[in-house]
Design brief:
Layout lengths: L3 H30 L9 E6 L7 H6 L8 H13 L4 E6 L5 H12 L3 E6 L11 H6 L3 E4 L12 E5 L7 E5 L5 H5 L3 E6 L2 H17 L1
Parallel strand pairs: 2-3, 3-4
Antiparallel strand pairs: 1-7, 2-5, 5-6, 6-7
Length: 210
């Protein structure tokens, strides 16, 4: 006959093993998805609502009605582009704002490496600045015709990645007048290294595949 202690031990192991396996999987998931809580990083959330519709004229007149004004938000994005010293890697569904176009050209003129990934169909949308950026020598890629099973719908921008000054924004905002003034949209600005690394890997994979 089997020793009763041995039987108890075997039953206990069989009972506990699935629990241990679940705990291990939870640890792996947490380890793979946890964002670095480094106190040196920061983030800022910007939300555009129906209230920003009244800011349309502010964008035209380059005047701000306050910190939540669309022109103030646009200025913040422009300042991020102005801060670029090494590179701008942008993935944007639609880009039609003249101010953004000009700031990208300014960055190119001061020697910043610029790469843009955009949607193939939206490149030819009315008001799009992509064709003009191509004419100015900016590197731009889109999905191939064979890959047109969906939109290239990303909206993020990496600035000076791999440098101490690296920063990025991501969210739902297209760089359009409608996006900055009329839609319900958002962007998050951050210098968090983990987030930048993940978006950077995604950008490089897209750039290589296109």
């Amino acid at each position: 006959m089997f020793d009763s202690k041995l039987i108890t031990l075997i039953v206990s192991v069989i009972t506990i093993a699935p629990i241990i396996a679940i705990l291990i999987e939870k640890w792996k998931f947490k380890n793979n998805t946890n964002i670095n809580r480094d106190k040196n990083y920061y983030y800022k959330c910007i939300f555009i609502t129906y209230e920003n519709y009244s800011c349309l004229q502010h964008v035209y007149n380059t005047t701000s009605c306050g910190e939540k004004c669309s022109y103030a938000y646009l200025t913040e994005i422009l300042n991020l582009l102005k801060s670029a010293k090494s590179s701008i890697s942008m993935c944007m569904y639609h880009l039609s704002l003249q101010q953004i176009f000009q700031e990208i050209i300014n960055a190119k003129l001061r020697g910043v490496s610029i790469r843009i990934i955009t949607d193939r169909e939206m490149e030819f949308n009315s008001g799009s600045k992509i064709s003009r950026l191509r004419q100015e020598g900016v590197e731009i890629k889109t999905q191939s015709i064979a890959e047109l099973t969906g939109y290239l719908h990303h909206k993020f921008c990496l600035i000076d990645k791999n440098y101490d000054s690296q920063i990025m924004w991501f969210g739902s905002l297209n760089l359009t007048l409608q996006g900055i003034c009329s839609n319900w949209d958002n962007i998050v600005i951050t210098n968090n290294n983990d987030i930048i690394l993940r978006f950077s890997n995604a950008f490089e994979n897209l750039w290589t595949d296109m």
